[in-house]
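Okay, any thoughts on this one?
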Amino acid sequence: MSGHDHDDPHAGPLPHQTYAALVGGPLDGLLLDITGRRPEEMDDGVALSTELGRWPGGRALYDPRPDEPHPSGGPGVVCRFYHSGDTP
């Protein structure tokens, strides 16, 4: 993820990487690096480890919306994943 450590020397998005913006939930505003992943690999969303969710040490669930564009292969922020819940 990009932007998760305030002192990370490479905290911003890199120009040659592909990202999904995370919307809502404990990871709101962060970017998930999806470089090299095929769009169909992300159709079911992602479960991301975090200490910030409902269950510390659990996972925050983020899903694409079916009415929004699927990730493309270009660099930059190409899609959004929305918080759909947390799991232990």
Notes: Strands lie at 18-23, 31-33, 46-50, 58-63, 76-87. The first strand starts at residue 18 and ends at 23. The two ends are 20 Å apart (CA to CA). The chain has a mean pLDDT of 83.
